[in-house]
Amino acid sequence: MPPHIHHDEELSSDYTDFRPPIKALLGERYSELSIAIAKFLSLYLVAQISGSSSSPVLSDKLRYPSFMRVIPSDIYQAQALVRLMSHFSWNWVGVVYGDDDYGRAAYQSFMQDSVGKICADFEKVLPHYLDHVDIDKHVKDVAQTIRKSEAKVVLLILKPELVEKLFKEMIQTNTSRIWIASDTWSMNRYLTKMKDINKMGEIFGFSFSMGIAPGFEDYVKNLRPTPGARNDFIEEYKQLRLNCALSPSTCAVDDLLNTVDLREAYRERVAIYAFAHGLRALLKCDENACSGDTNFPPWQLVESIRSVNFTLDGNSYSFDENGDFTDGYDLIMWKENNDERIIEIVGKFLLKNGDVEILNQFQWISNTLSKSKCPESCPPGTAKNQSKISCCYNCVPCGEGNYTDDWDQPECLKCRDGLWSNKGDSKCMPFQEKYLEWTDSYPIALPSDHLCRAQQAVYGLGFTLCVSCILVKAYRTFLAFMAFDPDRQHTLKNLYKPLINLVLLTGGQDYTDFRPPIKVLLGERYSELSIAIAKLLSLYLVPQISGSSSSPVLSDKLRYPSFMRVVPSDIYQAQALVKLMSHFSWNWVGVVYGDDDYGRAAYQSFMQDSVGKICADFEKVLPHYLDHVDIDKHVKDVAQTIRKSEAKVVLLILKPELVEKLFKEMIQTNTSRIWIASDAWSINRYLTKMKDINKVGEIFGFSFTMGIAPGFEDYMKNLRPTPGARNDFIEEYKQLRLNCSLSPSTCAVDDLLNDVDLREAYRERVAIYAFAHGLRALLKCDENTCSGDTNFPPWQLVESIRSVNFTLDGNTYSFDENGDFKDGYDLIMWKKNNDERIIEIVGKFLLKNGDVEILNQFQWISNTLSKSKCSESCPPGTAKNQSKISCCYNCVPCGEGNYTDDWDQPECLKCRDGLWSNKGDSKCLPFQEKYLEWTDSYPIALLVATVIGLVLVLISFIIFYVHRNTTVIKKAYSTMSCFMLLGLTVSFVSVIMFIGKPSDHLCRAQQAVYGLGFTLCVSCILVKAYRTFLAFMAFDPDRQHTLRSLYKPLINLVLLTGGQGIILLFWLVFKTPFRDLKWPDTGMIKYVVCDEGTIVGFVVMHGYIALLAFICFFLAFKSRKVPHDFNDTGIIIFSMLIHLFIWLCFIPIYIDRNKTNQRHIVQASAILASNYGIMFCHFLPKCYIVLWELSENSRALIMSRLARRINDDTANANINVVNEDGRTTPDSGIFCLGVGTSIREISTVSIDPSSTTPTMDLFNADRGIINPTVSHHARLGQRHTTRN
Known about the structure:
alpha/beta; eight-stranded mixed beta sheet; 38 helices; disordered C terminus; transmembrane; signal
């Protein structure tokens, strides 16, 4: 099974080795069919290659492991569409999409990629099926929307049949737009030949990379039945595509070519080539034959096709990790050609750079296309005043002293000191000095400080004096002719003092204020009414206080200076909704909103505030009016979308009547979700009493801060007309709210109380208290009286109310600078209560901290709610690997040295110095120190081996000492053997120093003890090898004499070992080994090891030992033909080979274990192996011989074996006797070159048994020992040599 193919359940061996006759499938065209087939084929891993199925779902290799396609995924089509619109500066477009999986997915991708770049003036949906009962009505409705819209560009994500219907409707009304085609119809040739298609306007779109298959056109032209035959497939195809009869005479054969787009068919050619290349590689084909097994399991072909990389028509093709091609799209334009259109490639969208590129020969297109922008571009001298819709803004002229020098600037810049600009200027200029010169038509002198003061003073006093005189004269006339009341005349006459009046009027001015009888207005409920009334009241600055009008427009104090409200602006409701969803970890939701000003504005605010936090799985719109002809159908469509969606949370920005209809539809299908209510229906009491309301699921929402007005409930209960009177207001209210007749007997009085939410009325109480506190402050009231003037101008009350700060029912209230309350919202939950719901406050959203707070007694809610997330939360130790959808991601484990200590972290944090973490850890920990502890298995094994070695050394020493007079021991040169045992002892002891926690002194001792000990041992072997070399290989007398002078055993031993001592001394002095912490760049363990200080010292020490070992090997190898009884050459060769082989293997292993404590294990193991090599070669065999085979190795037997070998050698030898004076004479016998007192005689076996010449024992020569018991030997007075 290939490694990239995974399944949740392990496939049985039957499926793995399944070998069907069909090895691959080409197709399908549509994603819906490909998905269904891919699910089946993936069970058996049969390869499927599509040339047009572009659904992003098919990129999921866990679900569709054997599916491949030679086109990109649709996730890139949305990017291409957004880039196209941005390239031509279109940011105000319309969107029409089909109500199927393809349409909704493409629409969703486009809306997500277009956030902040492209805005939709309208979004309309058409039924997917052409036989829908109201399809024509829906098409007309969409056409009417397009005609009314100011958007000049319309994106159609529809199938060709729906596009044809829509185009016919647009042609009838002669409506032209710029159309953007989705890939489903961008290449449809039938539409290019529609009647009057040229009236539609420009058409652009994207298609998958196209080409022409050589010879395919001729093949289609010649495709006809053979004479006398009939091909029903061709006829049926013509019938479906051309709508002609099945008779062959009805349609010409060439018509078949007109229905096939040769360039579109090119993708099928690419798919076939991909399959062919994969099959060729699998079957190991060359130009002549294929050697592979044709009965292969299909998954092998999947692997082979996925790995192809081939070139076709100059283009290179290969699959990515998802089995998709990622080359890009062709930008096409439907170019007018007589009465039809032809499709022409005018540009490219390449995925590698992610931008639209127009071909050079079509650069003129940009200059001919209409603009489609929400506002026109803002010229220099203006700045963009952004609205709530990201693409829309007003161009506001820069004020004086400000400027912009480019188009579409976000804000005006201030002029530098010394420069200034007029309103709307695009640059700042130096000030011009201007005054009324004498040469002007109105001449005056150059202004000066005194003249400036005199100008206003003279004018003010002079003209006021004139007007005051006129007023005195008018007042005199008034008294004379108008004062018909004598008492009043007398009073007014007292005020007539002409000169005094003149002085007073000239010295100061009196302003008369507007003082209406109505000082304040409470209301309205709806923002639309409040806006209209506020415009009027603001002319006279009469205060207006509303308890429910929440439109953000009313916060504009320039337009509505006297308006105030005791609720927050709607701009905070969207924030509250987003915070609520984030609090409960809901980031994958559905949105349903009404098609009215309130619904669209709230939806737009929510989408803007939710960017990067909350993602919408679907966005559906419902008609605002209940009497809409298709309201029930739209509601059912929304309900079906909710049921199909994986989102468990749905936000409903609807009025209560629409919510009721939707809930009834959900109850019928027993569908439960978590519903988020907008403030339009969050506290609607009628909905709480719906039948089966408990089946819809949990309901949350926000309402303005609520409370209970004391005594209001009793007042409502007792609200009835006085005896004999009639209250039409109450009756009309009951008729509107309860749908009962106007007769008082029809509805009980208590019903009125049931239809009023006492907590909702609480806001009116707060508004009255705000007015009362403002009036109290203005009139300077205490507990008893008010000292202020009650006939005050209303603007004074506005200022007084705006500055109030009062406490009511434990809550503090005040207005902000915009005249709004900023207390926040109550979070409410519809709690089940028998067969209905009751509204309960479970939390708060306070604007001061901007977060949702759940009350303590309702903290359990979080544990009972379902999760609604695009991706599961990433646990500590992982980070989010973001996908193209901001709410969707994969959880990637943090690498070593990184961590996350909380859920859903965007990236891993680095550990601080001294701390580390393993892959996927949620915290950093200090490193653990690791070394060879005495209780570990490896150190115990080393210790056991060391003890055994020391015991063997001790036993060998005892045996050698006890049997020191035997021939075998004497032959082994017991002095050097004892030094060897001493060196081995020291070397074994050094192994123990590698165990335990290293220290600086222990690190130095490890190398020094081993180096000296083993060097002593090897030096002893070298002395023994050199002795054998002198005795048996020095056949040249002169050279023998020279070499013999170098043989000083003890001196040699001291010098050779001392050389190592000098090396170690330099090493320890200049760069000594030390204790160090080694970290292998991974894991939590730092190894406490001994650093060599310098690798040079380490290499030289071991190199010196290796050099001595090699010399031993060389000398022993040269002496290898000497009789075995008289030398240890074989033992020396074998032991030195063991040593050199061990340390040769040691080098790469030691280097590889550079940062772990295994270096100590490797070196200690190498030391033990070398020591045991010496022991098993040099000592244990001799101990065995001494203890168990001594009789077979007596002196007599050894000499007998030697004599027989000499006789064998001399039988075929020419022997010359070399006298001591240098002459050579023939003789019988054999003689090796003398070595002075070291070797005096080699005994031969005499033929005469009576011969009793005493001889010096070869093996005791170094000690000068003479054995008097030896007989049957002849002393040789001559030196013999053998010449072959």
